[in-house]
Structure formats: C-alpha cells, structure tokens
Amino acid sequence: MTENRPSTQKKKWLLVTAACFLILGFYFTTTNTYTLLKGYAIYKWNKPEATETMAQAQAKPSKPEKKAAVPDDHELYEQRPETGDLMGELYIPKIKATLPIYHGTDEDELEKGVGHYAGSVLPGEDDNSVLSGHRDTIFRELGEVGKGDLLITKTEAGTFTYKVRKVRIVDADDRTVIVPKPKATLTVTTCYPFSYIGSAPERYVLVADLLKTELNE
C-alpha cells in the first residue's frame, strides 16, 4: 500500500491542475479579456499591411483625378451590403493603418474591424456615411488623427478620399453624429477617453468632407 501512495498523489495533482486550466479557459473566453486580445490581434494584423498597400499603390501609374461630385442619377453601388458583409477598407495615412469595414455595428462586426452604421449612406455617396470602432482595439491610435488628416475608403465602387474638417468630443448618447449632411461626409467615431477603463462616457468624432473620388471601371 505504501508503494502506491506517490502514484495516487500524482494522479490527484494532475486532476487538480487540469481542473484549474479548464476553469481559467472558461473564464478567459467569457470575459472582455478574450474580446480585447482578439481585437488587438486584428489591429496588429492589419496595421503592417498599410505600408505595403500604400507602397504598391504608389508604384502604380497615377490615374487622373475625378471630380468628387457624382450626378444624382448615377448609382455608385449596384446592390447594398447585408449585415456582416465585408464591404471595403479604411486607410488612415496618419497612423499607417488599413482596417476592414463590415456592414453593421453590432459586436459581431466590431470584433472583426470597423463597423458601418447601417442607417447611413455608403462611402462616396452624398450625405453622411458613419463608421465606428472600438478605441481599445483597432482605433487605439485614432486620437492621433485630427483636422487636416486624410481618411481613405476603398469599396467595390472605388476609392474615396476624405479630409478631416472637424474633431468633436460628444456624449455617448449624442445622436448628432448620425444626422444627415448636405454633402458627402464621412464620420468616424470611437469611445472616449482612450485611456478610460470600462464603458466610456463620451465619443471621439472625426468629421471629414469628400475630397476626391476615383471610381472603379
């Protein structure tokens, strides 16, 4: 009986260790820690691509600029995206970040990239196109972007370059962020302050005007 005691103790130790790992794994996947790390992985994965993407773009012959205004009877998009669809990318030169844009602003979309508010127009169209993202993942450096900086969206319709006209700090429940605009506008928003722990009380908002349109042929 004495010879079997160490083996029995070893089995008990292994069972306790396995149980601890299971509990930690369950806790990790059901808390914000998992969401934060997943979002940060998306941010780190996409950011290095920005330099390569722009280098490739600069290497190609430049196309003649087209007027930003699009005739009222011209439809930029043949069909509207469905919730959850990957609909393009947002390139922010100031922070060298290229980020995927998904249609919708539910947590499923915001976990994967930038969310496009479904109640707003698509990039390039007249009126207010609204994009949102988490401040602690893909938009962790958005505070470095301000007036005069460029925001470039690429979709199936073309490439649309916007210039930031104004930076706003508003309350979390401020609905003026999504109101219609008289001209083509891109509004990018995230929670604020950036260093705030928990549910932030305000929003950091970039309001940008359409500067250049390059339509896909």
Verbal overview:
This protein has 217 residues and is of the alpha+beta class. It has a domain at 85-215: Sortase (Sortase, Chain: A). It contains three helices and eight strands, in the order ααββαββββββ. It has an eight-stranded mixed beta barrel with strand order 1-2-3-4-7-8-6-5. Strand 5 (150-154) and strand 6 form a beta hairpin. The longest helix is centred in the N-terminal third of the chain and has 28 residues, at 32-59. The model is unreliable at 46-73 (pLDDT under 50).
Tell me the strand order in the biggest sheet: 1-2-3-4-7-8-6-5
Q: Major beta sheet, specifics? A: 8 strands, mixed, barrel
Low-confidence stretches: 46-73
CATH class of the domain at 85-215: Mainly Beta
Shape: elongated
CATH architecture of the domain at 85-215, please?
Beta Barrel
Our measurement of the CA-to-CA distance between the termini, rounded to an integer number of angstroms, reads 83 Å
Quote the beta fraction: 25-35%
Number of strands: 8
The name CATH uses for the topology of the domain at 85-215 is: Sortase, Chain: A
Helix percentage: 25-40%
* SSE sequence, one letter per element: HHEEHEEEEEE
Question: What is the radius of gyration computed over CA atoms, rounded to a whole number of angstroms?
Answer: 23 Å
Pfam family, one: Sortase
Protein name: Sortase
InterPro entries: Sortase, Sortase_D, Sortase_D_1, Sortase_dom-sf
Transmembrane segments: 12-29
Strand and helix layout:
Layout: H1 5-29, H2 32-59, E1 86-92, E2 97-103, H3 107-112, E3 114-116, E4 128-133, E5 150-154, E6 158-171, E7 185-192, E8 202-215
Parallel strand pairs: 2-3, 4-7
Antiparallel strand pairs: 1-2, 1-5, 3-4, 5-6, 6-8, 7-8
